Structures are given as structure tokens and as C-alpha cells.
Amino acid sequence: MSDSAVDREIKICCATFYESEAIRMLLGESFHPGGLALTYHLGEVLGLNEADHVLDVACGRGVSAVHLAKSFSCHITGADYSHQNIDVARNHAAEQGVSHLVGFRQGDAEGLPFHDRTFGAVISECSFCTFPNKEIAAEEMARVVCKNGRIGFTDMTVNGALPDEIRSMLSWVACVTGAGTPENYTRILEKAGFTDFVVENQKDWLLEMVRAVRRRLLAIELAVGLGKLDLGDLDVNEGKRLAQNAVELIYDGTLGYTLIAGRRA
Ligand SMILES: C[S@@+](CC[C@H](N)C(=O)[O-])C[C@H]1O[C@@H](n2cnc3c(N)ncnc32)[C@H](O)[C@@H]1O
Fold this sequence. Notes:
By secondary structure, the protein is α/β, with parallel strands linked by helices. It has a single domain (5-158, 175-203, 254-264), classed as Rossmann fold (3-Layer(aba) Sandwich). The chain has ten helices and seven strands. It has a seven-stranded mixed β-sheet, with helices on both faces. Strand 4 (119-125), helix 6 and strand 5 form a beta-alpha-beta unit. The structure holds S-adenosylmethionine. S-adenosylmethionine (SAM) is lined by residues 11, 14-15, 18, 30-32, 58-60, 63-64, 80-82, 85, 108-110, 125-127, 130-131.
């Protein structure tokens, strides 16, 4: 596990950020582009079924885990750095009546609290880009999945140089710590022991998410104008401008969202 003071700070900052109500206002319940539709597609690509025990690394509030269990009848364990997210996830699974299929555990992607070869498949959504040490996270996923077990993740990709303000916006609003190209990600996964990759461009979902964030910023602006919301130092206009810049970077291919699936060699 990479646990230098700086790396620990990044993980805590990211976990705390995704616990906040503000992020729920901006992103909704599912904290990744494509929401549950893309989660379902990931489940289909991996061919999940009732015999599977799946690990969701950085599961957030457990929304995807519950959805996959309901959709594919698989068993699923979610792990997240945030204790608070884990509590919310457990309650969500209980409310949805799937606690017999779904469990959650606090843990670090770079030091997963599971035995070797525990799972038939491992997924991670919009989280790999936030891990300070992606090589170690990939090795951990390879360790806990069975031989021939599947990996599937969807994540932010960056191809080329980002303007400074967008880079700092991404690190601030999405905790992105060095998103790479799809080729970077497959190289890291291959080195960790995965093979037979399927790579799908899912950038339309990222566009859709940024547009949804812009719409929500307009609603937030209205609520601030009516005195119903106090955002402190947050500048909604700046947020709208950066969102517009992000749309342009998605169109020109600099920012993207990619699904990568493979199997443990
Ligand atoms: C963008 S959210 C994605 C959550 C969830 N996968 C989803 O799509 O709704 C990123 C999540 O990564 C978690 N996280 C960040 N660093 C982590 C780490 N090192 N180990 C485990 N979880 C981590 C955060 O707590 C947060 O829940």
C-alpha cells in the first residue's frame, strides 16, 4: 500500500469530498458518468451471473453494487475508503432488500482487506483515476481475483495536455490524480496480470454528465439568488465556465471516459 503522508491526504480528501451533500446535489446518487445504465452495461460485458462473487473497488454509496445484485443476482462486496459511504451503502442495501447478496467493508484500494483469489470478478467505476498509486491498486485487484476472473472498470481518461484551470478543477471536483490514456490503463493492468482487453469509448456519458452538472449549477444559482442556499466561497459562474471548457475538451478528444474489461491471466 502506498501510504506516504501525501498519498494518505489525497485518499482522505477524496473520500471526504464524495461524502458531501454538495457532490450529491451536483452528481445525483451515482457518482460516475453513465450512472446505472453504464453500470448495467459493464455487468453485461463481464457476463455477471448468479454464480459470481464480485468486488466493487471504491464502491461509494453502494448504488452500483445494489443495482448489479438486483440485475444479475450475483453476490457483491463493496469496499470504499470512506467509513461514512460504507454506512450509507449498508443502509441502502437493507432498504432495497438485498443485504443477503450485498456486503460492504471499509478498505483501501491499494491494500484490499481480502484474501487472495476471493472473487470471480472485480469492478471499479470512476475511481482508478483517483488512486495515487495505480500500479499497486491494479496488483491488488489482480491478487484478490481468481485465475481467469474478470476485471471491468469505467474511468476518466486524459489524452494530451490539459489547461491548468481544467487540471485543477478535475483534481478539485473529481479528485483526479493523474488520469491517463486508455493505453496507459491497459498497460498498468497488463503488468499486474490481466489480459484480453476490451476497450469501449464511453465519452458520450461524460458529455451527458457535464451537461447535467451545468443544469444543476443553474438550479443552484437560482436557489442562491432566492436566498435558499448559501454556497460560501463557491463561485457558480466559474463552475459553469469550467463546465463549458470541459465540454470542448471532450469534443476534441482530450478528456474522455472509457470502459475497459479483461481477465486475469
Ligand atoms: C468518483 S467516486 C465513485 C464512487 C462509485 N464507484 C460510483 O461510481 O458511484 C470515488 C470513490 O472512491 C473512493 N476512494 C477514493 N480513494 C480510495 C481508495 N484509495 N480506496 C478505496 N476507495 C477510495 C471515494 O471514497 C469515493 O467513494
